[in-house]
Sequence to fold (170 residues):
Amino acid sequence: MSAADRFPARRHDSARGRRRVGSRLILAGLLAAFWGLLSAASASAEQLVRYGPYQIHYIAFPSTFLEPDVAKALGIQRSKGIGVINVSVRREGQDGRTEPVPALVQGTATNQVEQQRVLSFQRVDERGASYSIAQFWFSAGEPLRMDLQVWAEPGGQPFPLTFTTSLFPE
Fold:
């Protein structure tokens, strides 16, 4: 079974009965939350790693940061104890512009007492964007180590991504 078979893309388009306008609103809402949180967090650390031409952007945040309609459209449960991790990959061209890459992501979240939770990522492809999201349980202020493997190319070697985060519900 190929990696693409194990990680099917979740599409929000008219072929599945969803209007493009709704799809764009979902994307706009998620991207606004993603970039807003990324901007706020960038003062402490850039949440970006580079592997050659690939830029891997990542962030973890409480699910309550998402607007209810965006969370519902993505199948994300909003709760004070549920977090969301968002990973997106972009490839930089020779002209300096970047384009989205429909990457595959696997990983785990581990707490301080080494309890490990498998993260179940789903890929979302929208016009002009591709990202992978997963939900996980957390306790307020609990440090969680995220150990991820990111495949930018089908059949290629995964890029490792490890970071620690502590979340606080709003």
Notes: DSSP finds three helices and eleven strands in the chain. The first strand starts at residue 9 and ends at 11. Confidence is low (pLDDT under 50) at residues 1-8, 10-21, 38-44. The radius of gyration is 16 Å.
